Design the sequence.
């Protein structure tokens, strides 16, 4: 069987590239705009958070804001959940459609968009009316209004519908191309959301069977440890659901933008399959300090966390090689001479290069978090937000911004407005982010607590001072950087020159062709890998549920902010 498989390579220089019908392009761009709307609210709250660490209180200027925790919930939910998934709901289906040169299912596009909007409206209602100040981790026994939980369920359903759309498109393509290997871009885009689908099931159980009935008052009490465990069961993998679409771009699009090629088709597919296998059975690394979970299981999750570090290391070397190829093609010489020769003047590429550079520090801090004993030092301090702003707040957010610099023109048919403004946005945001993270991380090492309104704290350690100032300064620069991004996107949509937009997505050729036989072709059997992933999950989580269940309904709900 394997011997007959034909390779399918992208037609990167297609003179008449496949384009989606305008109705579908419109739906995809409105999906993106939902994310930008959320991000707009999110960045104002982000500014307020950063300044509060520096001792400056601007929260009182926010209309309808009643507490610090209401603002922090808005910030986390808008930026980390709505913005990220809105982007991916548009980006990944577009990648699959283009890779397979096929239309998407329009009813599913509508359904995915509709559930995303509906979910958003419910969440906005709950958060704005201060009925859901439970932070983006939704920890019980903090209790939110049912609209908050139901709203988030709709957002998750919208991601499932986006996945279904990709799977149906793939199925249609397979029927017409029997025996042809699925193109790399389609493979990695689909695997990203298959991983997320699997990862989202525990939080679906948490919300549907525990938090929603409890928020309606159908059951009086809930089980904080069990719901928290279900949360992190999904909650660690969710970070890779944010990251993998960025990796899709780094692997399959960035090489082209840099003038290089994808180093290896098989290695790239392997990386995404490794994420499918290892992203989920690692959630206890968020619960090292939680009672009620056996140390041995925490150890298993720690080892698997070091395992899931590995595909990111492969990515670092592999993407770097693609970039080096590009830099040398532009005349770069010597060990590092290729770096300045990369097309830094392209805002889409420069955003993503800066995203990668900050992710190196995000990765290092992640490894420190994952190490059980070091976690005791940093857990619940500002070190942790320092870490995750260098991952989701930069590697992911900056990549999504970089992609937007070609994707919004591609979807609207309008040329990018203000290339230099976009470049300034990239640099201001990155420099701000590095200052901010340096502040959070150093003060975190001195024990500065996260999720705390320091403006009102009756205690203050002088050792936090420098970190607090850096946090405030960096956060302000980040705000300015993103504000410029919005200016560029808004001006592109309204005033960008019509007809001068890119006609195709910037996708790359591979240096080493897709394999036609051997082990690598088995990487396409996504169903099989899902089963292996489930086995690993059962090993990592099974003992906990076996020893813990049935649920211990001990706590009533609290609304304290
Ligand atoms: Fe994390 C906490 C461990 C990655 C997000 N993480 C968080 C939280 C968030 C988050 C949001 O083990 C806080 C949750 C909360 O509110 O409590 N994290 C890790 C580890 C990794 C990791 C081991 N995290 C991420 C990613 C995130 C994210 C990705 C979002 C997208 N994290 C933890 C742990 C905690 C945690 C514990 C709990 C802490 C606690 O106590 O509460 C790894 O996956 C990281 C792997 C990354 C690398 C870097 C590879 C570098 C690349 C770039 C190459 C550069 C090039 C540049 C090519 C190995 C790929 C070349 C360019 C030129 C111009 C030359
Ligand atoms: Cu994690």
Sequence:
């Amino acid at each position: 069987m394997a011997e007959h498989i034909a390779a399918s390579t992208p037609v990167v220089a297609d003179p008449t590239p496949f384009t989606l019908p305008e109705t579908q392009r419109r739906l995809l761009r409105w999906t993106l705009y939902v994310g930008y709307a959320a991000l707009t609210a999110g960045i104002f709250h982000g500014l307020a958070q950063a300044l509060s660490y520096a001792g400056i209180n601007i929260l009182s200027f926010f209309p309808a804001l009643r507490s610090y925790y209401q603002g922090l919930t808005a910030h986390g939910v808008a930026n980390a959940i709505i913005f990220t998934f809105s982007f991916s709901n548009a980006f990944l289906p577009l990648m699959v459609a283009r890779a397979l040169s096929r239309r998407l299912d329009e009813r599913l596009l509508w359904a995915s968009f509709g559930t995303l909007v509906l979910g958003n409206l419910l969440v906005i209602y709950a958060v704005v009316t201060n009925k859901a100040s439970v932070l983006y981790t939704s920890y019980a026994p903090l209790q939110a209004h049912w609209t908050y939980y139901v709203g988030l369920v709709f957002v998750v359903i919208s991601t499932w519908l986006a996945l279904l759309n990709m799977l149906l498109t793939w199925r249609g393509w397979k029927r017409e191309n029997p025996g042809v290997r699925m193109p790399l871009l389609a493979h990695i885009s689909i695997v990203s959301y298959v991983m997320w689908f699997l990862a989202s099931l525990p939080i679906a159980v948490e919300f549907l069977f525990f938090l929603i009935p409890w928020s309606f008052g159908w059951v009086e009490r809930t089980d904080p440890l069990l719901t928290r465990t279900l949360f992190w069961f999904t909650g660690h993998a969710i970070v890779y659901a944010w990251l993998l679409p960025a990796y899709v771009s780094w692997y399959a699009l960035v090489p082209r933008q840099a003038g290089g090629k994808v180093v290896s088709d098989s290695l790239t597919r392997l990386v995404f399959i490794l994420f499918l296998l290892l992203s989920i059975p690692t959630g206890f690394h968020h619960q090292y300090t939680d009672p009620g979970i056996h140390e041995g299981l925490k150890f298993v999750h720690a080892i698997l966390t070091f395992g899931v570090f590995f595909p990111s290391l492969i990515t670092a070397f592999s993407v770097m090689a693609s970039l080096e190829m590009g830099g040398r093609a532009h005349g770069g010489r010597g060990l590092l001479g290729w770096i300045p020769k990369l097309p830094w003047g392209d805002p889409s590429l420069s955003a993503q290069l800066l995203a990668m550079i900050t992710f190196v520090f995000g990765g290092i801090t992640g490894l420190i978090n994952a190490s059980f004993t070091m976690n005791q030092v940093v857990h619940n301090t500002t070190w942790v937000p320092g870490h995750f702003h260098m991952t989701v707040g930069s590697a992911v957010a900056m990549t999504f911004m970089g992609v937007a610099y070609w994707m919004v023109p591609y979807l609207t048919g309008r040329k990018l407005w203000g290339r230099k403004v976009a470049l300034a946005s990239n640099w201001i945001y990155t420099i701000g982010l590095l200052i901010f993270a340096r502040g959070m991380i150093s003060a975190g090492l001195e024990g500065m607590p996260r999720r705390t309104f320091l403006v009102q704290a009756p205690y203050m350690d002088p050792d936090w001072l420098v970190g607090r100032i850096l946090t405030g300064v960096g956060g302000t620069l980040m705000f300015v950087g993103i504000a410029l991004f919005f200016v560029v996107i808004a001006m592109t949509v309204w005033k960008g020159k019509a007809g001068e937009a890119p006609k195709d997505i910037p996708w790359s050729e591979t240096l080493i062709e897709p394999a036609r036989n051997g082990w690598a072709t088995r990487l396409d059997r996504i169903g099989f890998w899902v089963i292996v992933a489930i086995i690993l999950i059962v090993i990592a989580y099974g003992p906990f549920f076996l020893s813990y269940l049935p649920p211990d309904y001990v706590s009533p709900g609290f609304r304290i902010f």
User: Anything to note?
Assistant: Residues 439 and 467 are 4 Å apart (CA to CA).
